[in-house]
């Protein structure tokens, strides 16, 4: 193997492939528990940006291997040196933070399936997804303070909204690790299943999402996000605008027709 191939393997990769109406992204850097290199982050940003403009897409699936993602490899990114002042503020919003924003705002449902470690950025990536299914023995961990720096990638926004301040403090300030089974009990993730059942559980949910009324799903996702920083009145106004849009879709007509005929709807994502 050439030195170039060795370097590429150490850098890791993200496999992006289209599977019908589903975009599948697989993190592949097992030697580093799928911690993300800058090249991997760039691939995620590019793929998700393209997906946001693809009206034929109906769901996104993000997965790892034995581990989901152990965070961002800051040591490799900075050649083992402390970043210079202002460097992180300049770079991260267009890299790691952009991935979280895209996952949270893209107008199709995003599902993460988690085995092994979901740490730091990897934990927050799973939390930003619309649905995360994890193995019961997976581990969710926010190790920022254990490493001597403050949280990033949306941790301080996501955790309190999902599990409340008390549990957010346990994870962020005390660095408590949360097993997949407990994460599901807390409401941190959608579901925890045995490791042997994980792939099937993820596929069943993915099939359901990919066969849903895609435009209405996207609008509902947008309204949920809007409601996190809006009043009840503002949220209901936003819902009315979204309702106006969703009522113009072919899937809305199909939903009504299926209701009249007492049959399951066959949505086409249009």
From TrEMBL:
Print the keywords alphabetically.
Answer: Isomerase
Q: Which domain of life does this protein belong to?
A: Bacteria
One Pfam family hit: ECH_1
Q: Please state the gene responsible for encoding this protein.
A: echA11
Kindly indicate whether the keyword GTP-binding belongs to this entry: no
- What molecular function terms (GO) are annotated for this protein? isomerase activity
Task: List the transmembrane segments.
Answer: none
Identify this protein by name: Enoyl-CoA hydratase/isomerase family protein
Organism from which the protein derives: Mycobacterium parascrofulaceum ATCC BAA-614
- Note whether Isomerase occurs among the keywords: yes
Q: What family does the entry list?
A: Belongs to the enoyl-CoA hydratase/isomerase family.
Signal peptide stretch: none
């Amino acid at each position: 193997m050439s030195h170039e191939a060795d370097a590429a393997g150490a850098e890791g990769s993200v496999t992006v492939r289209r599977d019908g109406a589903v975009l599948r992204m697989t993190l592949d850097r097992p030697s580093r528990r799928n911690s993300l290199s800058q090249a991997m982050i760039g691939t995620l940003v590019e793929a998700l940006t393209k997906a946001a403009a693809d009206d034929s897409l109906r769901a996104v699936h993000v997965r790892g291997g034995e581990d989901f993602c152990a965070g961002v490899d800051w040591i490799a990114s900075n050649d083992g040196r402390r970043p210079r002042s202002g460097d992180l503020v300049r770079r991260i919003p267009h890299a790691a933070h952009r991935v979280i924003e895209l996952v949270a705002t893209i107008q199709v449902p995003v599902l993460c399936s988690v085995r092994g470690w979901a740490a730091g950025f990897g934990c927050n990536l799973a939390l930003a997804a619309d649905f995360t299914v994890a193995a019961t023995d997976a581990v969710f961990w926010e190790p920022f303070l254990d490493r001597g720096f403050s949280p990033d990638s949306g941790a301080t926004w996501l955790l309190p909204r999902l599990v409340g301040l008390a549990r957010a403090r346990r994870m962020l300030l005390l660095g408590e690790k949360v097993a997949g089974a407990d994460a599901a009990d807390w409401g941190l993730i959608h579901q925890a299943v045995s490791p042997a059942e994980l792939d099937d559980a993820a596929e069943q949910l993915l099939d359901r999402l990919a066969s849903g009324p895609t435009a209405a799903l996207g609008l509902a996702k947008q309204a949920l996000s809007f409601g996190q920083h809006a009043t009840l009145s503002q949220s209901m106004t936003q819902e009315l605008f979204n309702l106006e849009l969703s009522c113009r879709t072919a899937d809305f007509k199909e939903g009504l027709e299926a209701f009249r005929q007492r049959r399951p709807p066959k949505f086409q994502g249009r």
